[in-house]
Amino acid sequence: MDSSIPIDRHRETAGYPGRVYPCLLALLLFLTASFGFRSSAAAEARLRFDLQPDEFPKAILEFYHQSNIEVLFLATDALRNIRTQRVVGELEPRTALTLMLAGTGLTFEFDSDHSVIIRQSPLAGVPQESAPAPFEDSVHRMAALEPTAGHNLKLEEVVVTGSLIHGVMDVMAPLVYVTRKDLSRAPFATVQDALYQLPINSLSAPREDLGLNNNLNYGAGINLRALGAGATLVLVNGHRQPLSGLNADFVDVSNIPWSAVERIEVLPDGASAIYGSDAIAGVVNIIMRDDVQAAQTQVRLGKAAGGRDELLFSQLLGAHWDTGKALIAYQYSDATTLAAAARGYAADADKRPYGGSDYRSIYANPGNILNPNTLQPAYGIVGGPGAAAPNPPALSPTINRENGFSQYQLFPERRAHGVYATASQALDEHIELFAEGRFSQRDTLTQQRPQDQMLVVPSTNPYFADPFGGSPYTVVAYSFLGDLGPTTFAAETRNYLGTVGANFRMGEHWRATLSESY
Questions:
Q1: Could you tell me which of 209, 151, 201, 202 has the C-alpha nearest to residue 178?
Q2: How buried is 375 (Cβ within 10 angstroms: 0-12 exposed, 13-18 middle, 19+ buried)?
Q3: Whole-model pTM?
Q4: How far is CA 404 from the centre of its chain?
């Protein structure tokens, strides 16, 4: 069940994720009952429309843009075979929608002041044999095409990211979906790989190949509109997630088992009024699977030129019964390192062959003597790494440079385990209990830039040299790459989260959820 425009189906209270207090619920029920009347102001206001014939999904989105009326419909492949009518003129939205859907077999019903539900008849997907009726003919048939009252079609429940605040117009954006069909067709291996393909997502967030950017656990964050990872709210099944990184400033999506993901919803618009300041750039809601029957096994092997072999193994077990369902998923992934030397653009810090500058470091082995006043390199020490230095050392005006990428690794060695489980049980037609949990562990090992240091050599050192004259010490820029090798970082990350709760159906139109997350 998909909707072209998000409507209010989120079941968390902003600022209090995972909790709904009884007194607050009672207050909301009272206020809604007191002020939740419906009007037809939006449907009866006359607006200027210019709707051209098109496929239904594209045409209905254009209707939303011109009318500011939210639209909910059941997305099927048959809708692409349905073409709408041309509508031009100053009309009420209800009239414009009636004319646009004339002859398509689709009906509609206004659900609130600013939202409408479009339903498909059993023959709605059948291609039209005759040409679309002209605009004038459609006017005479309007009465016969009015929405049928008390329609028996029932819409399945849909849980989407977003909200519709009464009276607020033109603030919501259509959701961007990454569905399970998209996941199966694309060569994605992780959640972050799928999200990196979205143009709205900036790659400046913490990534697996940017481990030292306050990201010692080599996690992956999401950064919509390049406003910072802390400005993008990441949810899993509508629940907030623990923060990662040295400063706890982003949600690590790399520990979510890829094989257990049903779809990903992205609200590419500011939602801070609904969710808080961490949703200034938008919201990403990752929906996990709960519909697996029997067992599913998946094995994925990948190999890149010059290194970086990847293995992904997952096993899903699921069961349904009359009053409930359960699923458990396990995923194991293993990836080797990728050395910078295996990539021409990253193998050397000297970018002059590519039209750039020389970014090799003045911290070298042998080192460079710095000017004590400016701390800029003045003389290079003559010799080779590990070779016996002359006494006093020979100096040269040629500055020594070191390629810090000679043993650098672009991607770390990574090994990860992930488990996800969910279950629900209906006690009766009004109460359903549910629980879900996730655990992951990831171990990484990588080589980064070598340690370097600015050494102060006193005049008492037998290898002291003073090319400037009269100085009691000499400052040397030195790298320990030849002595100690590259800096090695090892990280172990464990994440676990559990949620229990209950869904309550109160009459035909009301539903409440009480949940607790840890």
A1: 201
A2: exposed
A3: 0.63
A4: 33
Taking phi first (over 0 means left), then psi (-120 to 50 degrees means alpha), and beta for anything else, what does residue 115 get? beta
Query: Phi and psi at residue 390, in whole multiples of 5°?
Result: -70, 160
pLDDT in tens, the chain (518 residues): 333 333 333 333 333 334 434 444 444 444 444 444 334 455 567 888 999 998 888 888 889 888 888 888 887 778 878 989 999 998 988 899 999 999 888 999 887 767 889 988 665 444 444 444 443 343 333 333 344 444 455 555 555 555 544 444 444 456 777 777 777 777 777 888 888 888 888 888 888 877 666 787 888 999 998 888 888 999 998 888 888 887 888 899 988 888 889 889 888 888 888 888 888 988 999 999 988 888 999 899 989 888 889 999 999 999 999 999 999 999 999 999 999 999 988 899 999 988 999 999 999 999 999 998 899 999 999 876 555 566 677 899 999 999 989 999 999 999 999 999 999 999 998 999 999 999 999 999 999 889 999 999 998 888 888 888 888 899 999 999 988 999 998 989 888 899 999 999 998 889 999 999 99
Residue 505 near residue 429 (C-beta atoms within 8 A) = yes
Quote the CA–CA distance of 397 and 378 in Å, as a whole number.
7
Cβ-count burial 96-121 (b if 16+ within 10 Å, e if not):
bbbbbbbbbbbbbebebbbbbbbbbe
DSSP string of 65-109, one letter each residue: HHH--EEEE---GGGGG-BPPPEEEEE-HHHHHHHHTTTTTEEEE
Query: What distance in Å separates the CA atoms of residue 141 and residue 145, rounded to the nearest whole number?
Result: 7
Token readout for 119 is 């339903």
465, 432 Cβ separation under 8 angstroms: no
Would you tell me the crossing angle of helices 56-67 and 93-100 to the nearest 10 degrees?
A: 170
DSSP 364: B
301 alpha carbon, distance to own chain's centre = 24
Residue whose token pair is 């655990």 = 439
- Residue 366, token pair as written in the block: 């042998």
| Dihedral of alpha carbons 279, 187, 448, 252, sign | positive
* Structure tokens, 322: 């009359």
The structure tokens 């995972």 sit at: 18
The residues, any chain, with a CB within 8 Å of residue 344's CB and separated by 6 or more, are: none
**Percent composition of the chain: helix, strand, coil (DSSP 3-state, to 5):** 15, 35, 45
- Distance between CA atoms of 460 and 298, rounded to whole angstroms? 67
Contact 231, 305 (CB under 8 A): no
Token pair, residue 249, equals 């400033």
Which stretch of DSSP H or E encloses residue 240?
Answer: strand 239-240
Neighbours of 305 (CB within 10 A): 8
386, 184 Cβ separation under 8 angstroms:
no
The amino acid occupying position 399 is I
**Could you tell me the two tokens for 271?**
């939602």
CB distance 499 to 435 below 8 Å: yes
